[in-house]
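ok so i was messing around last nite and threw this chain in just to see what happens. nothing serious, just curious
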Amino acid sequence: MHRAIRAGSVHSCHDLSEGGLAVAAAEMAIGGGLGLALDLRSMPTVEPGLPEATLLFAESPTRFLVEVAPEEQATFTRHMARTRYAKIGRVLEESRLRIVGDRGAVIDVEVESLRRRWQAPLGGAA
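result:
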């Protein structure tokens, strides 16, 4: 990952340590002002058949959600050759976070709604 970042093939990257994939995706969408479409069925896992809640919120170490521009994909792939990874989604022009799983949409929310909830005081209404 470090080599891919240094080569400039990574546009943005977020660890999954606090809140897992769902929180990392929300924070990336909020920070970038764009939407994300992710597919849990494409996630590489050590153990098949994990519940969607585990895929969304597991805080396993050394996992990252990485944004790579299409023109940088070959470079990124070359740097990640000995690392397990998968393309699980794409950036959307529309400002929504959409995550699908085996039974369809798991999360489908406007990024602005996520931003309001993220900025709301603890215990406050969003």
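not much to say yet. The longest helix spans residues 20-32.
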